[in-house]
Fold this sequence. Notes:
31% of the residues lie in helices and 17% in strands. With 864 residues, it is of the alpha+beta class.
Amino acid sequence: MHVLCVAEKPSISKSITQILSGGQFSTRSTANKFVKNYDFEYYFTNDYYTVTCVSGHLTTPDFFDTHRKWNSCDPFDLFEAPVQATIPETSKSIERNIFNEAKNADMLMIWTDCDREGEHIGSEIEKVCKRAKRTINVKRARFSAIIAQQIHNAAQHPVNLDRAQADAVEARTILDLKVGAAFTRMQTLALQRQVKKIEDEKNVVSYGPCQFPTLGFVVARYKDVQTFRPETFWFIYLTLSQPSSSPGDARETRFTWRRGHLFEYDAALVIYEMMITSGSLARVAKVTKKETKKWKPLPLTTVELQKAGSRLLKLAPKKILDIAEKLYQQGYLSYPRTETDQFDPQFDFASLIDKQKDDPAWGGFAVSLSDGDFSRPRNGKNNDKAHPPIHPTGHVSNLIGDDKRVYEFITRRFLASCSKDALGWQTTVEIDYEGEEFYATGLTVLEKNYLLVFPYDKWVDNNIPDFEKGEEFQPSVCELRDGQTTRPNLLTEADLVALMDKNGIGTDATIAQHIDTIVTRNYVIERYEGATKYLLPSTLGIGLVEGYNQMGLEKSLDKPILRRETERRMVQVCNGQKSKQEMINQSLEQYKEMFMIAKGNFDKVVTSVRNYLERHGDAEQGRPGDGQGGGGNNGEGYHGSGTAGRGGRAPEGRSTDPASRAAVPIIDIIIPDDSDDDSQPPPRTSKPPSARQPPKRPTPPPKLPASRNHDSGQIHCNCGPAVQRTVVKESASKGRLFWTCPNKPGCGFFKWDDDVTELCNKAIPAKRPFSYRQEPSANDSESCRCRCNLTAVRKTVQKEGQNKGRMFWICPNSDAARCSFFEWDDEPPRAEPAHDRPPAASGSGGNKPGTCFKCNEEGHWANG
DNA sequence: GCAAGGTC
């Protein structure tokens, strides 16, 4: 029998050929320079194999000529316009190749990635091959890693294509095209007609279900920055100065107040006065000394490369990916699009480390790893079963510029991940002063280990003197000091990548593209403050988002919820709960309704955009010298250490935008400005008040709703009101505020302050409380449904363990009748892999309970 | 002149 195998990409076709052929194969080139056809005899079945590939999707949906031209129809007609899958010119050679190969084959075996898109690509391949040979037998090989045992198993036990998954993707592609085209044409044509600065027909004002929420994140943060009003807080500053070894020098230990700081002056003053009037001494309550570690970095995924690279190398995520792609093509890096942060057990570290031995900068470190310092990289939680984490595959020394920096980062990260965690010695001294707790933490770095090769991480000594339990002393300084909350930062690209990732906007391969899109569309401007790049919405970007928000649409176009509903409907199609056509119809109805409202109220967008473009249009030119653009918080954040108050005021002069896009008139920007902030209390003195003298109380700021008190309520733990504290430990979170239980031992409550703020602002969902699911409602056709097609119920993990307190959705039936449906509340809904799905799952939705369909690494769920 | 998703 002649079997034609078609993989999703060239690298996979080559790998499976090497495994199945045992290295004995012949190669034919094709009209596409990346695609090769490999021929061999498969020893185990005595079949003749040809292995080739496509390069991702073969087709892209498009309108017919009747609707393709912008002025050919009313944009609304696009929702009902017929759409056909077309093969773009660039894919024609690939199509011809599999068409010709299929003519001679008895069986088509599809080897695409095992995900929804892979299933859809499989169906595209099937169509071409069936045109070539109607009777060809179509099968699908299922594999999750390129390792010999799995590949042989897949070849010998092929299954059928999963039509439901392919249908879900097809529905999504059609919807994306229709919705994107309809909204883009409508808003572009209307704005070109009515706003002078946009009248040039080259100005496309695009709408896309991913790009708009991406813009929404940038605008929401900008608004947070703009509406921020600082609040004054009070804290007790306590130090002890001791003679040091060098004469005339004093060694100062700063103790942090366990309460962090208080926003009520009276309360702080009462506590402070009690302390200073008692005349008693501070007593050392506890000294803890323990070994501590700074963990080496995880193996590198695409999203992590973009986040870390943008933060550390100050390069745009798209640029980083482009460079990594180029270095991959040149053979210096592994495949740069991967979700995997764990190396295979058989991964050959030694030879890769060897290749770095001659590098003048990190060669010595590579040698030391080979000489015994090697330690297997940590395992992350992600594995796309297709590609290893990003790592250098060869050494190169002649790179320059950004290419060099990206290669260096990836290589150092790889070597660091193969090294040992850094080791330190941490001392914590807790003192009691009139019933108030203070503490100081010291760190001595014992072994730098991975830090030697990874300068991007900082971990430095912070020595404090020796203290003994029970020791008493008179503090050198004990003052009531004030500080002010500082405004949040504008988004960095790294923040945005993380937000998109968390909200399921785009995929690892497309996130960077979406960010690039909103920049090239002039919705967002990249703005540097120092070396850090912040994302600032343009007047056009804000105008659009605000205009749409004024329409009172139930589901705003600039929020992730619509995309999430599309995602949920796709899952329902995959589960057989919905047909492709039902999904398309439901989504189209929803978008058509929104379109009519948007069109009917478009004057709001026009007015808003016009206002921003014309009223603020010259803002930057009109107000030079305000360098507040980045909104850079200098890292002191809320700590209020008594030095200059608001963080991040850049040196005088305008920040320059190296992206020369700033020349385009419609992208003027409004710089977050606090000059008209009349509610702000007087600036606090830069000099601390003298010791033991309470500062003169500044004018209290007006009460602002939901600013600090988070929805006018205190944050509560299980025991009552929680307290706010600051991370003092040397770590990535140093200086960050959090809320915790005030009792010792308490209930263990913990929440980051910025998560709480985000949750309250509803602009950026926080990690855990954020739900991807809809609560059941009267009209709950979109609610989370289990496999019995019942509305799922949300429960909370009670069992002790890392998931305790986490919420999940399951079938509402009682134990015996409960089906195997399970989804985490804080993770996007996902289609169940076909191989794990019980046969009854397809069809009308009926499903016998008791089949465990999901391998769950946490082991939290096993039904039946 | 529209989208988002693959991949080179």
